[in-house]
């Protein structure tokens, strides 16, 4: 049963933060941070241009620097308000944050195999799992629903973004984990139907 205080917007836009320095280095970022590259800033500006005329008044953003930087670039161009929503933060990668998979293979040699065996339930050492993040995604959507004026834009990350889209579209675990969200791409989701802009 859905709690009475649960409120998800019927229509919203979802974007990932722009490219970062660590994206280029293939490092897991999790809840650590890395600044946007010039390309990442350009991606944010392009998202704003694509959403011009969409009447976005509220941008709900992850509190992490790369997402807030993206949100502020877009908000400046659209004249929208930015609201920080802690639950939109990326999955906590715990001890693996800041490392490449090659480094992880040395520091945590069984992690890749354990993750492959139970990708949804496996938690990053000292961090969280997709299963935990899906619960958080639901809270994030409700927070954005209550805080937004009109149709909101959510700025988050790839992994939590999968769980946001799964929650909005009613996807199975397998379908959710198969989703991809490249930098610079915007999804419009309305009553469970998704289209890419």
Which features does this protein show?
alpha/beta, Rossmann fold, six-stranded mixed sheet, 8 helices, 6 strands, 41% helix, 14% strand
Summarize the model shown.
With 197 residues, the chain is of the alpha/beta class. Helices cover 41% and strands 14% of the residues.
What does this structure look like?
The chain is an alpha/beta fold. It has one domain (11-196): Phosphoglycerate mutase-like (Rossmann fold). Helix content is 41%, strand content 14%. It has 8 helices and 6 strands. The chain has helices at residues 21-25, 38-50, 65-78, 101-107, 111-117, 130-147, 158-169, 173-177; strands spanning 11-16, 58-61, 81-84, 153-156, 186-190, 193-196. Strands 3-2-4-1-5-6 form a 6-stranded mixed beta sheet, with helices on both faces. α2 (38-50) crosses α3 (65-78) and α6 crosses α7. The longest helix is centred in the last third of the chain and has 18 residues, at 130-147. It is globular, with a radius of gyration of 16 Å. The mean pLDDT is 94.
